[in-house]
Amino acid sequence: MTDQTIYDLIREECERWPENSDESVAIEVMKRIKVPVKCSMILTPVVAQAVCSERRGHVRGLERRSARRLTGPAAHDPIDRKEFLAARFVLSDGTYVLWGYATEEQHLDRVVYLQKYVTGLTVTIAQHEDAIRDIQSHGVSCLNEIEDAA
């Protein structure tokens, strides 16, 4: 018996099959752990989501290291340019593109896509700030304790 987790296998298969879809990598993972075909039909979307998360986490790490390289001392945590350019990101239509092959239009698409998240987060932050002010101004410990909610 091995001490490997399914996440270790996912990481290995992502490295082994960088160009393959999340679903095909998920199928490779399930083959390695000998999941019966009938069960793999049910599990494929779940494992594919884990593959997607693993890939996004990897790219997020590369992006962070790249940002530090650009804004801090050049010697701090250098990034492998080839690895960065081979990393992929998702466009607003759900398709993936590699950093090295992304066009100006595709980068703009990603910026607009991410700005929607920023806008949504800004609204959510404002709602929580309003809740804090309401709690403080009413001298209560939570919103449910405010009598006159209307």
Keywords for this entry:
150 residues; mainly alpha; two-stranded antiparallel ribbon; 65% helix
Could you walk me through the main structural features you see in this protein, from its secondary elements to its overall organization?
This protein is mostly helical and 150 residues long. Helix 1 packs across helix 3 and helix 2 (22-32) crosses helix 3. The protein has helices at residues 6-16, 22-32, 37-71, 81-86, 104-138, and strands spanning 88-90, 96-98. It has a two-stranded antiparallel sheet with strand order 1-2. The protein folds into two domains: 1-91; 103-150. It has five helices and two strands, in the order ααααββα. The chain is extended and about 60 Å long. Strand 1 (88-90) and strand 2 form a beta hairpin.
Continuous helix count: 5
- Major beta-sheet overview: 2 strands, antiparallel
Major sheet: arrangement of strands: 1-2
Number of strands: 2
Sheet-strand content, in percent, reads: under 5%
Overall pLDDT score = 84
Low-confidence stretches: 70-77
Secondary-structure element order, N to C: HHHHEEH
Oligomeric composition of the shown chains: single chain
Percent range of helical residues = 55-70%
| Class from helix and strand fractions | mainly alpha
End-to-end separation? 61 Å
Which descriptor suits the 3D outline? extended
Task: Supply the number of structural domains.
Answer: 2
User: What is the rounded Rg?
Assistant: 22 Å
